TrEMBL record:
The keyword Glycosyltransferase does not apply. It comes from the Eukaryota. Residues 1-23 form the signal peptide. One of its GO terms (biological process) is response to ethylene. It comes from Gossypium raimondii (Peruvian cotton). One of its GO terms (cellular component) is cell periphery. Pfam families: Pollen_Ole_e_1 (PF01190). This is Proline-rich protein 3. Keywords: Signal.
Amino acid sequence: MVPTPFFFAATLLLFSSLVIVAAIDYSQGSESVGKSMPKAKEKPLPIGVEGHILCKSGTSSAVPIQGAVARITCVAVDEFGYETAPFSFSSDATDENGYFFATLTPPEINDKMQLRECKAFLENSPLEACKVPTDVNKGIRGAILNSHRVLDQRKMRLYWVGPFFYT
């Protein structure tokens, strides 16, 4: 027997009904039958972005730039599925090791928005002799933040980019 569109639709309807019935929580007695308890929306974790900014000139080895800044640009999606205008925030200035850190906390995006894509870019070098940005590790085009680890003690998603280079 060849399945007809009616047979397929009836099977899909039956399967959907079974899934809905299986999802009902019977643990609280007959009062809860047919009622689903709304789940509390988890607040998104703050996002941390870290990396290094270095100076590479000629054939010499790369040296850290103290006081350089990275920029992180994000696009979010609102509750209706529309993309927001891109928004940016800057990292703290790099330390003596060229290390930078930037944070984006949930109040900077409202609870009804979800981040779609964030990229990190070179923003500024304080060194006159090493001020030209390079696209090594996408320092000019923007390194997409795509893998992270969760820091339980800081309750944060931490992304790593770079190292970025000026020349």
